[in-house]
């Protein structure tokens, strides 16, 4: 494909849930979206969904913790046009007591969430710095702020993304690149809907709003941070969480 003047967004882990909602929203907002997912069929389906919603998208399957796969993602973005936005959304959950975690569990959690964000950012950031324009958004979690029982490695990885956001924002903000994070609370994703109805009802009752958020609520937060209206947001962590965490 020949490059165009269209702004390009890269969304990792966009095969379902929050990532898919983000990709669809950005497509409607005029971005050409590079949709990444570990599963090729999920990436292809997500790209079709973005297109059917009126946007433009290409699918690139791959593991964000691998340098070769990240290089392919970056190359696809540059082939489309100007990579202006990176949403480091790839991740996964695993619930286990700390004493039952293996080193492999811990390493894989950090490889996907933290190493993946590092590699994708490293691949696209130089072009943003050269143009003195760009936006990077880390998909963290409220558990990176308050912790979660039987989610020590997940919470630690999400906390690392918040720390990465703040440090990188201080480093590259003066060069025209804005870096922020989003820390969702309970969201109606396929993973959450798979939990028991009793748990979902009890958790919703704890929330000041009395309900979970939707993936589109998180997508709206991402779209705002990517917009010119968020021009003075730098190193911030926004929390679409129904009031579960207030900072």
TrEMBL record:
Pfam families found in the cross-reference section: adh_short_C2
Oxidoreductase found in the keyword field: yes
InterPro entries: NAD(P)-bd_dom_sf, Sc_DH/Rdtase_CS, SDR, SDR_fam
PROSITE patterns: ADH_SHORT
Source superkingdom: Bacteria
Keyword Protein biosynthesis among record annotations: no
BP GO terms, sorted: monocarboxylic acid metabolic process
SUPFAM superfamilies: NAD(P)-binding Rossmann-fold domains
MF annotations from Gene Ontology: glucose 1-dehydrogenase [NAD(P)+] activity
UniProt keyword list: Oxidoreductase
Ranges in coiled-coil conformation: none
Protein EC: 1.1.1.47
Family: Belongs to the short-chain dehydrogenases/reductases (SDR) family.
Protein name (database record): Glucose 1-dehydrogenase
Organism expressing this protein natively: Lichenibacterium ramalinae
């Amino acid at each position: 494909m020949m490059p165009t003047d269209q702004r390009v967004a890269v969304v990792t882990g966009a095969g379902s849930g929050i990532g898919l909602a983000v990709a669809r929203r950005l497509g409607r907002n005029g971005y050409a979206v590079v949709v990444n997912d570990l599963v090729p069929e999920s990436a292809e389906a997500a790209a079709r969904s973005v297109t059917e919603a009126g946007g433009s998208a290409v699918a690139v399957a791959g593991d964000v913790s691998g340098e070769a796969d990240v290089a392919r993602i970056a190359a696809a973005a540059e082939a489309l046009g100007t990579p202006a936005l990176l949403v480091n959304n790839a991740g996964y959950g695993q619930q286990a007591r700390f004493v039952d975690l293996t080193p492999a569990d811990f390493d894989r959690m950090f490889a996907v969430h933290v190493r993946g964000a590092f590699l994708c950012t490293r691949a696209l950031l130089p072009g943003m710095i050269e143009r003195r324009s760009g936006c990077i958004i880390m998909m963290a979690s409220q558990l990176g702020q308050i912790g979660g029982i039987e989610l020590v490695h997940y919470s630690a990885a999400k906390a690392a993304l918040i720390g990465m956001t703040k440090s990188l924002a201080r480093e590259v903000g003066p060069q025209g690149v804005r870096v922020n994070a989003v820390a969702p609370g309970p969201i109606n994703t396929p993973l959450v809907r798979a939990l028991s109805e009793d748990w979902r009802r009890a958790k919703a009752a704890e929330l000041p709003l009395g309900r979970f958020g939707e993936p589109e609520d998180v997508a709206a937060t991402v779209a705002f941070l990517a917009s010119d209206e968020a021009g003075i947001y730098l190193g911030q962590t926004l929390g679409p969480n129904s009031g579960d965490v207030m900072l």
